[in-house]
Amino acid sequence: ILRIYEYLMAGIGLVAAAVGLTMLLVALVEALTGATVLVGSAAVNTLITAATLLVVGGPVWWLFWRRVQAAAQRAPDEEHASPTRRIYLFVLFGIAGVAAVVALLVGVYFVVEDILEGVLGTQTLRRVRFPIGVLMSSGAISGYHWTVYRGERAKPVAHAHGPHFVLEE
């Protein structure tokens, strides 16, 4: 139960940090395009949101991920074969993959629409700021976790779980 809690909290922290990273990239694009709102600038408002999410989500993810990784160092065979760990990693890859595909489709749609309307420019960059942020943050998060997963699979397992023979003689 404790390990499930740690993976769940790591996932929640990672989602908050991922949204914060996405918003940070959105703020960068907004600053480049010079967007303004009624009070202040859109980039400053977005940057404040990104900082808040990163300050809250990043440490939560790091604290619980560090605990999980410490458990994997203590008992690598049990932890790497754990269904909870596999579920965490595969759900993370699945969500990141779906988010990346949707962001890519939306971004391409916006670019093609602006090309067909003949208004390709900074407004197009502003329109694709969220797809760019989602693609970059999901790629970074998936890349890190893929190296963790691949590193686990490269290590030999001391013993396999489950029956070795299904039929007895």
Distance between the termini: 39 Å
Q: β content, as a range?
A: under 5%
In N-to-C order, the SSE pattern is HHHHHH
Which outline best applies?
elongated
Number of DSSP strand runs: 0
Model regions low in confidence, pLDDT < 50 over at least 5 residues: none
User: What level of helicity do the residues show?
Assistant: over 70%
Distinct helical segment count: 6
Query: What structural category arises from helix and sheet content?
Result: mainly alpha
Could you give a short account of the major beta sheet? none
Report the C-alpha radius of gyration, rounded: 21 Å
Mean pLDDT across all amino acids = 88
Can you give keywords for this protein?
about 170 residues; mainly alpha; elongated
Draw up the topology in text:
Elements: H1 2-33, H2 42-74, H3 76-80, H4 83-117, H5 122-127, H6 129-154
Helix pairs in contact: 1-2, 1-4, 1-6, 4-6
Describe the protein's architecture and organization.
The chain is mostly helical and 169 residues long. Helices cover 81% and strands 0% of the residues. Helix 1 runs antiparallel to helix 2.
Short synopsis of the structure:
The protein is an all-alpha fold and 169 residues long.
